[in-house]
Amino acid sequence: PPLAVKWRLDYAGNQPARWRAMEPGGALSSFDFLTNFVLGAQVGRSVFVHGGLTAEHLRSYGGLAAMNAEARRWFDTGYTPPIKATDKVKGNPEDVVKCAQNRARSHNANMPEFLGGGPKDKASPVWMRDYSSPADLPPSNATASSMAASALSAVGNGAVRMVVGHTPQRRINSACGGRVWRIDVGMSKGVMNNMPEVLEIVHGEEEDEVYVIRPGRGRIDGAERRCGGPLEPPPG
């Protein structure tokens, strides 16, 4: 079929340029800045992951290094569309939907379990919210603090804190006795249009210093950002 028809069949109008760039085997997978694509990373005493980590994640999937390697393998794997340039397809709605569904099924069938959503009680490191919900308050999961402690112990190598995103907060804050820092402040206009903030971790020989940098206030001692404390007013 014509190129435009084939494009519609492959992506079914689902923001095709973005999908083509971001999907496994897509345009961005060959760029140097994605060659070190990882699920989580430890830098000094801090562990960075989008949603959160549990000791069960680490046991079940072989640790951070194994998950990173498997996530990278999946991201590098391309997808061969079922529609070829020589196929005689008109691009009717049924074909469009069928091809898009096949494309999604192919990616999902090969996606590592730890990247998927999973049931609420076993959410993946990408999707879990146990440490960060509700926003700006202590986690509603009563076991969150012990979960975080167990996860950091399982990571080892001196890990003392986890830095997560995924659940927008009105400000960067810490929870679980300082073991978890929630840094997604929803600064995009499409999320909360919130004031940008930056978490600064200064490595020391024995312990680290943690600060939050906020426009108009400069450097804020991390001790002031324990969740449940007073909030700065939202941007006007």
**Overall helicity:** 25-40%
Biggest sheet layout: 5 strands, mixed
| Mean pLDDT, all residues | 82
Question: What share of the residues does DSSP label as strand, in percent?
Answer: 5-15%
Task: Describe the structure concisely.
Helices cover 28% and strands 14% of the residues. With 236 residues, the protein is an alpha/beta fold. The strands form two sheets. Strands 1-2-3-5-4 form a five-stranded mixed sheet.
Features of the shown structure:
disordered C terminus; 5-stranded mixed sheet; alpha/beta; 3-stranded antiparallel sheet; 236 residues
What do you see in this structure?
By secondary structure, this protein is of the alpha/beta class. Helices cover 28% and strands 14% of the residues. It contains six helices and eight strands. The strands form two sheets. It has a five-stranded mixed sheet with strand order 1-2-3-5-4. Residues 230-236 have low confidence and may be disordered.
